[in-house]
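[audit] Reproducing an earlier prediction to check determinism. Same input, same settings, fresh worker. If the tokens differ from the archived copy the diff job will pick it up downstream; this log only records the rerun itself.
[audit] input (85 residues):
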Amino acid sequence: MSVPCFELFLAAPGAQRAAVVGTASVRIGIEAAIRQGWDAIIGSDGLFVGMSGFGASAPYKDLYRHFGITQSTLSKRRSPNLSTG
């Protein structure tokens, strides 16, 4: 799912938000920015792949590698709630 505006999403009725987010035991947020706002959607125990601070400036591919916003990073990170079987 895409959340272009956290405020609008969180203002929606709970049933509507639940229908979008689903009931998965593992929730992952991927953002070319910081985690701010994602905990309300993925939970504090959700996995987040993104930047850890503001102010970085470089070509996006370099920044993505630096902050681990890559498919490789995501495949290596694992939630304790995610079954390996």
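[audit] rerun output stored. Observation attached for the diff report: The CA atoms of residues 27 and 55 lie 27 Å apart.
[audit] end
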